[in-house]
Backbone:
């Protein structure tokens, strides 16, 4: 799995499912902080989206893994079955 | 499924029972339900005096109650409760008034990692009254009343 492809797919999922404007979403934009301002409901949608895309279950995973697209990508790359 | 059978599966009761009959039910996938709107409904007293219109939030609630029947296989999970997380793109195409027989159709679009996504359509005489999407999840009952720290 190519890192750039994973990051791009996660970005696409966030834009489509959570309606985050594409122009403000960078790979290092803080998802739950001031940059994007997501909340706990959004985190459940991210968990479902990652599961749909890669079969990786992020339920109960430390919140640092949800910090930005880079962190989500790292988690997927470490836990997805090749 | 009649009202008595519905009562075995969902916990809502009058005046907050928004599904009165279920004509189709495919567990985990879809359902069609009926709600007859009577002028005797208590909310019409205030919404609106002299000009009764069914509140849009109650149309959403009717679809949500039907979704809960689709999600819960037997409605008897004592530790969990299914809660509405998010309402997306609901449109109220035409006002619902007393005398209408609503046909509510819901379909599960996605069920993954504890998240259930549904589309809903509410019709009267075959004509669209409202439509939209809803997200649900299961939570522990205990967590609902847990103190926030």
Residues:
């Amino acid at each position: 799995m190519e890192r750039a492809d994973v990051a791009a797919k996660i970005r696409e999922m966030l834009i489509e499912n959570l309606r985050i404007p594409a122009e403000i979403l960078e790979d290092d934009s803080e998802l739950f902080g001031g940059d994007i301002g997501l909340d706990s409901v959004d985190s459940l949608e991210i968990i479902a989206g990652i599961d749909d895309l890669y079969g990786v279950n992020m339920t109960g995973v430390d919140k640092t893994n949800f910090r930005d697209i880079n962190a989500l990508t790292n988690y997927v790359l470490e836990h997805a079955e090749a | 499924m009649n009202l008595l059978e519905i009562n075995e599966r969902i916990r809502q009761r009058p005046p907050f029972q928004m599904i009165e009959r279920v004509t189709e039910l495919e567990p985990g996938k879809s359902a069609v339900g009926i709600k007859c709107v009577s002028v005797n409904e208590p909310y019409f007293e205030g919404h609106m005096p002299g000009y009764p219109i069914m509140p849009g939030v109650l149309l959403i609630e009717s679809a949500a109650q039907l979704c809960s029947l689709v999600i819960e296989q037997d409605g008897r999970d004592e530790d969990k409760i299914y809660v509405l997380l998010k309402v997306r793109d609901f449109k109220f195409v035409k006002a619902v008034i007393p005398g209408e027989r609503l046909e509510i159709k819901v379909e599960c679009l996605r069920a993954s990692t504890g998240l259930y996504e549904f589309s809903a359509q509410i019709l009267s005489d075959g004509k669209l009254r409202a439509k939209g999407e809803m997200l649900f999840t299961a939570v522990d009952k205990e967590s609902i009343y847990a103190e926030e720290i």
User: Anything to note?
Assistant: Residues 3-79 of chain A form a domain with the Non-ribosomal Peptide Synthetase Peptidyl Carrier Protein; Chain A fold (CATH 1.10.1200.10). Residues 56 and 76 of chain A are 7 Å apart (CA to CA).
